[in-house]
């Protein structure tokens, strides 16, 4: 059957209705984004069939797109394995333990910021950092009379740092996957828009925190209970850092990420079995289902300790994998049928410079994120719009992937209907806005986009493709489309 090219009106209708369904479903009815993506993918498929495409052709388009995601999907599975095995070995708990016992009560705000940076880089999760180390520091702040909203802002900023830069973060892996960039190139590009806000944040927290310094302060009972709880489960030894050293070595020497991470998992399992004395069967279950403290310790543990320990595993990454599958199904269909090109070509065609392109990318991510409250949707759709234009202007895909994170990863803390904002307000127990809201103190959330705009305007950190790389990128994208 002869294929028809979609009209502009039809393309606007298909994509417009799809976005409306996502907005209404997520914002007003709190429906799962995975099922909503499946619904709009099927809606787009029906529209594509009206143009002469059959289901087999659309399936092949989806399969082709998904085939290119396998390396990153493997990496996402590995993240779950890392978290589960590192808790089994005591590697992650040791970071928490020594962080808590070395807290200087006179510098609670700055200490919270630094410790959340360390933990979020180590785990790749802003939520895990805020929900464990962050909760501990909120207890410290409360006990010492330090403003909770400022402490919460420092916790969130430190937690976001690792969520952007850690090779274990799902967003740090998803963004380059969608943009066609390499993981460590993506991390390198993000230094331009992450390090400056981090330095500014550190200065602010030192200055502000010094005003609330407490001399001779002591840790509150809740924090002491957390320290004692961790010590009752694990034995501490320098060998527990070996799994982390393996990852660091692999990153510095640019070894393949998946084998490197798997070796670190094996090291963690060995430490948990031979040094901690935990059953090996528990280690294997931790890798798949997540660690469970009751499987190795019969006593009672404080709630924050349980929150720290009972998580991880490959299954914890299922929601991210589902988002990728469902989102890419929709993206593949609207690209195959030409809906996306038809609606975006008039806009993208007006872009002539790298600064215009990057600013348009940031604005589009912001619009979709605000509309849906889900950064993953923006991560998937925005590269479909702009990837070819980046290649045509000779801009490296890591600039595109960075732009996704410069808004999508950081802004959620300031968007009331995003899952991140809901998590932070509920977990840390403070409001988002107002005189005692954390928003103004969550400095990374608004400074990262600002530095992204500055980089776009000045050209700093805008990596270019060689002529050969540019030709190869354009050819590859044309074959994909």
Summarize the structure.
The model has no long low-confidence stretch (mean pLDDT 87).
Q: Explain this structure to me?
A:
- The protein is mainly alpha-helical and 481 residues long.
- It has 23 helices and no strands.
- The chain has helices at 8-28, 33-50, 55-67, 70-89, 91-101, 108-123, 126-144, 148-165, 170-179, 183-210, 221-233, 242-252, 257-274, 280-289, 303-309, 318-336, 339-348, 354-372, 375-392, 397-408, 419-428, 443-458, 467-480.
- It is globular and about 75 Å long.
- The chain starts with 7 loop residues before the first helix and ends with a helix.
- The relative contact order is 0.15.
List the helices and strands and how they pair.
Elements: H1 8-28, H2 33-50, H3 55-67, H4 70-89, H5 91-101, H6 108-123, H7 126-144, H8 148-165, H9 170-179, H10 183-210, H11 221-233, H12 242-252, H13 257-274, H14 280-289, H15 303-309, H16 318-336, H17 339-348, H18 354-372, H19 375-392, H20 397-408, H21 419-428, H22 443-458, H23 467-480
